[in-house]
Design goal:
Strand order of the largest sheet: 11-10-9-6-5-4-3-12
Helix content: 40-55%
Strand content: 5-15%
Number of strands: 12
Shape: globular
Structural class: alpha/beta
CATH architecture: Alpha-Beta Barrel
Largest sheet: 8 strands, parallel
Number of domains: 1
Number of helices: 12
CATH class: Alpha Beta
Distance between the termini: 43 Å
Order of helices and strands: EEHHHEHEHEHEHHEEEHEHEHEH
């Protein structure tokens, strides 16, 4: 089992992860979430406003945090090439507009994205492990991951087995995350691992907190709310609980873990609410694409239109941005 330690601060989880019973004692021993209090605090943070200069900076930061995503059965190589081109140059009329963090696609389209992105610095994220359901044998999930990494994926977005988690088979979920992280290393290539909970299926905020700690203890580089295929997807209260978890995990272990809300974040106003929450709950260190991402397909367009409004003083027409 992995040991998490840092000079001067550390926490060895080997005893905790020795059995389902030990994991259950640890996870159920975490502080319970006050549902009313959590929702009230998230709502209060969502009312915060930021001034013009800060808003300009927030828009560019939000663009840099976007994982521009297409995860449909009708995806084609042409659509992925267009999306990758947009990720590199979100606003072709403005060379000062930053690129997005990543393009997120199915594993079989990683090669197409890689050919288009080249050495641009935009990462390639691939959803693996039988996304979005996670209903497959472990060897299939690991092969799915390995294929994506070998094809050039920089990041793997895996889904946990929610059935196992909700049944209390925590060690099974833990060991699968460990195995997928190991599969993220192929020869000289190594991909970061984002662990998707599908919070809309976890039923309680307590379960969100438990899943967060479980994934971090297993070595996930990011914890992610949703696949975008189940409602509700990302919400402010759920994201706040995950931000509290990564903050507390760093305090306990010295290690930072990223957070990625995904699904349902469509407007600049929404994005700014999340950025305020990141700053207030986890802290300024997480206001970086290395530690916070938006999983989105339509958010980028609104960010670009708001950015143009601030730059030119007028709103652009609906044909200013491409429809992805």
């Amino acid at each position: 089992m992995p040991t998490i330690s840092t000079p001067g601060v550390g926490w060895d989880f080997s005893d905790v992860t020795r059995s389902d019973a030990a994991l259950r004692r640890f996870l159920h021993g975490l502080p319970g979430v006050d549902q009313v209090g959590a929702e009230a605090r998230a709502a209060a943070l969502g009312t915060r406003s930021i001034k013009t200069t800060a808003k300009e900076q927030a828009l560019d930061l939000a663009i840099r945090m976007v994982d521009l995503t297409t995860l449909e059965g009708q995806d084609t190589p042409g659509k992925v090439r267009a999306l990758a081109s947009k990720a590199m140059r979100p606003d072709p009329t403005d060379p000062t507009c930053p690129a997005t963090a990543a393009v997120c696609v199915y594993p079989d389209l990683v090669g197409v994205a890689k050919d288009t992105l080249g050495e641009s610095g935009v990462n390639i994220a691939a959803v693996a492990t039988a996304f979005p359901s996670g209903r497959a044998a472990r060897d299939i999930k690991l092969a799915d991951t390995q294929d994506a990494v070998e094809a050039g994926a920089d990041e793997i977005d895996m889904v946990i087995d929610r059935g196992a988690f909700l049944s209390g088979r925590y060690l099974e979920v833990f060991e699968e995350i460990v195995a997928v992280r190991e599969a993220c290393t192929q020869g000289e290539r190594s991909a970061h691992l984002k662990v998707i909970f599908e919070t809309g299926e976890l039923q309680t905020y307590d379960n969100v907190r438990r899943a967060s700690w479980l994934a971090m203890m297993a070595g996930g580089h990011f914890i992610k709310t949703s696949t975008g295929k189940v409602q509700p997807a990302a919400t402010l209260p759920v994201t706040m609980i995950m931000l509290e978890a990564v903050r507390d995990f760093r305090e306990a272990t010295g290690q930072m873990v990223g957070v990625k809300p995904a699904g349902g974040i469509r407007t600049t106003k929404d994005a700014i609410k999340y950025l305020v929450m990141v700053n207030e709950v986890a802290g300024h260190d997480w206001l970086d694409p290395d530690w916070f991402r938006f999983g989105a397909s339509t958010l980028l367009n609104d960010l670009l239109m708001q950015r143009t409004k601030m730059r030119t003083g007028r709103y652009s027409g609906p044909d200013y941005v491409t429809l992805d």
